[in-house]
Input
Amino acid sequence: RAPPAPHAHTQDMSFCVYPLATPGARRARVKGLAGEQLRTITLGPVAAIVGEVTVRPRPTVANLLRYDRILTQLWAQNAALLPVRFGTILADSSGLDHAVTLRGATLRKRLGVVRDRAQMTVLVPIPYPNRRRTPTRRARSGAEYLRGRAALDVPQLARLRPAVRRWVRDERMQMRGSIATVYHLVPRGAADRYRSALERAAREAGIRLRVLGPRLPYAFSDE
Output
């Protein structure tokens, strides 16, 4: 008697979401964390670049670094990109459609903000950090953010802002111990001029700092 025909073992596939972008997003020669082919799902004014996977990627250092490289490669090919939190998995395209529909207007606005812009990160040591009024949650409006920034502001940063104000389109700030971290959103083509102007102003003012970037706008994705 002939042996029974083998049955193929199949696993449920899910979508691993990488960045959100505008329709027509490019992804040439970029593969996902599991080596999977990436594809674009267009949902109205927003597109998601996704890969089909069978298991959720583990948050190891190697995977996080690889994830950053994947997003950076995609950012180099696209004018507007919003990074999505590592390991975002959806069961199917309907879940993605629902998530984007709920926030479509906000996502479209954020894509417009980051379009053709890069993130520059400035690290400034603060000898005597002000810990009295540190915000404990994300600001819900621009006015609330500015009030929170004032609570975190330090004289060193106030002295440097005029040197780069012409290029800065948005700003975020964090205090981590005695280090002030400032994120500036600047035009991609102005990154070198921004860096030179900021470092020159810091030297003239005797302020120590470190400038990192340009890179994709993690601090401005709000996702």
About this structure: The longest helix spans residues 61-77. The mean pLDDT is 85.
